[in-house]
Amino acid sequence: MPTKGFSVNINRYDPYKSFRFLVFFGTGTDPILGVNKVTGLKRSSDVIDYKEGGDPIIRKGLGRTKYESITLERGITQGMDFIHWADMSQQIIKGQAQTSLANLRQDIHIQLLNEAGQPVIAYIVHRCWVSEYQVHDFDANGSAIALEHVKLENEGWERDSSVFEIPEI
């Protein structure tokens, strides 16, 4: 979870590297193991054109905001967290109708880490649920790691302002 009590390092000139990050499900304090890619932190708002009586200028108004799906990818491990969460959105599990969807929607937390492994920027993605679970192709002629991914629908995300880089001393 986000670490609090840090101040902003106003002397930082180099951008952060994108390969050091952690992802947390719900209120969990242990990161999801093996996540190697997070894609799709994207939002866009509709533009509404309108005219005011007699004014020849077309005004631009703010419409609805849409949040794109987010994909988490990792190497296949013994961990069952991806598949368990994905199974919650199915109507039938092992021949039985699903009765409880209490944990279907969860917030996820994404933390970007600095070179010292400390959280410096974080995002909270609200009310996510798994719309797609995929195990990538197996190839006997290849040497790539077997991957699985989940596609998460969400109801918005925001930057967690409680997480900042520790200033250099």
Number of structural domains:
1
Q: What is the gyration radius calculated from CA atoms?
A: 20 Å
Going by CATH, what is the homologous superfamily? Hcp1-like
| Count of individual beta strands | 11
CATH architecture: Roll
Q: Mean of residue pLDDT?
A: 83
Instruction: Assign the CATH topology.
Output: Pnp Oxidase, Chain A
Q: Could you give the distance between the termini? A: 25 Å
Name the quaternary structure.
Answer: single chain
Question: Strand share of the residues?
Answer: 35-45%
Low-confidence stretches: none
What is the ordering of alpha helices and beta strands?
EEEEEHEEEEEE
Using the alpha-carbon principal axes, give the shape: globular
Any idea of the CATH class? Mainly Beta
Structural notes for this entry:
The longest helix is centred in the middle third of the chain and has 7 residues, at 81-87. This protein has one helix and eleven strands; from the N terminus they run βββββαββββββ. The protein has one domain: Hcp1-like (Pnp Oxidase, Chain A). The mean pLDDT is 83. It has 169 residues and is mainly beta. It is globular and about 70 Å long. A hairpin with a 5-residue loop joins β8 (106-113) and β9 (119-135). Helix content is 4%, strand content 44%. The strands form three sheets. Strands 1, 2, 5, 8, 9, 10 and 11 form a seven-stranded antiparallel beta sheet that branches. Strands 3-4 form a two-stranded antiparallel sheet.
